[in-house]
Amino acid sequence: MKTIIAATDFSPNANNALQYAAALAAATEARLVLFHHFTYPLPATDFPEVYPAIFVDDLAGDFEKRLELVKEELVRSYPIEITCVVRALTMSGDLEAVFQEEQADLVVMGIHGQSAVMNALLGNVTSATIRRGQLPVLVVPRGVVFHPIKKILFPCDGQAIPDAGILQPLLDLATGFDAYIEVLTLFDLEKTPDLVPAVNNASRTKNNLETLLADTRHGYAYENEASVDQGILYEAIRSGADLVTMISHHHSFWSTLFNQSDTQRIAASITLPLLVLGEKMPETAPEEVSTLEENQ
């Protein structure tokens, strides 16, 4: 992992995520990019073409100064290279553009709710970024403090992962910290028989993952659980995971997590960082074009 983008709106939760991102960058010897996006007011003037030139530059300059102050504070605690970037078009487009320009590996974002999933259910910039599925996003819940990652819970259904590039942030973290990956398949004998790990299907899926996870320490767990969100939460606690990783739109897990009305009550107790892997990853570097194809 070489470059991490930390997105901030200067809120307390975003500042907590910045601290996490800086500590992660220091632990992985990565460069940190502080990113802020702002939306300027619509002009109430007869000369709208003049408005941006007069006001947007001033706004951008003010935010750049605020980012520089954040940078000065962070470098006192973390011996890392830090760059500041301010943009003002569209949040999703700007973030994706900066991700490509900086050849980044990961985006770190905070939340405003009680937990990563709770916040995504309520809807905000973080959940919008996750739902687009373009970027790998590490969502840091309120109050979570960085510590070395030793165990990663990776809920994964019976579908093969077609693009190895999707898993790269997970692989980077696992190898960087020598962390153990527990691949979890949840199935319900009554409601989702298609996810029951039949011998042949489980073998094909396992062979696919074995190839992708070959350079990591990993293992497999299968649990019969009717509620996906409860199953993930229970296993995360039971296994002592430091991080939960999911693919944004992969089959039933993520969609089920966001579509069940009772998930809000369960999600409120999730306090682990949540790494959401982008299912439609953009090309991040010229030399990778031939190997990392965009997953349509």
Molecular structure report:
The protein is of the alpha/beta class and 296 residues long. The chain has a single domain, classed as 3-Layer(aba) Sandwich (Rossmann fold). Helices cover 40% and strands 19% of the residues. It contains ten helices and ten strands. The protein has a ten-stranded mixed beta sheet with strand order 3-2-1-4-5-10-9-6-7-8, sandwiched between helices. Helix 2 (51-77) links the parallel strand 2 and strand 3. The chain is elongated and about 55 Å long. The model is unreliable at 113-123, 258-268 and 282-296 (pLDDT under 50).
Total strands: the figure is 10
Provide a count of the helices. Answer: 10
Please state how the strands of the largest beta sheet are arranged side by side. Answer: 3-2-1-4-5-10-9-6-7-8
Percent of residues in beta strands: 15-25%
Distance between the termini: 24 Å
Largest sheet composition = 10 strands, mixed
Number of domains: 1
Structural class label: alpha/beta
Low-confidence parts, pLDDT < 50 over ≥5 residues? 113-123, 258-268, 282-296
- Shape summary: elongated
CATH topology label = Rossmann fold
CATH architecture: 3-Layer(aba) Sandwich
Question: Average pLDDT value?
Answer: 76
- CATH first level: Alpha Beta
| H-E string | EHEHEHEHHEEHEHEHEHHE
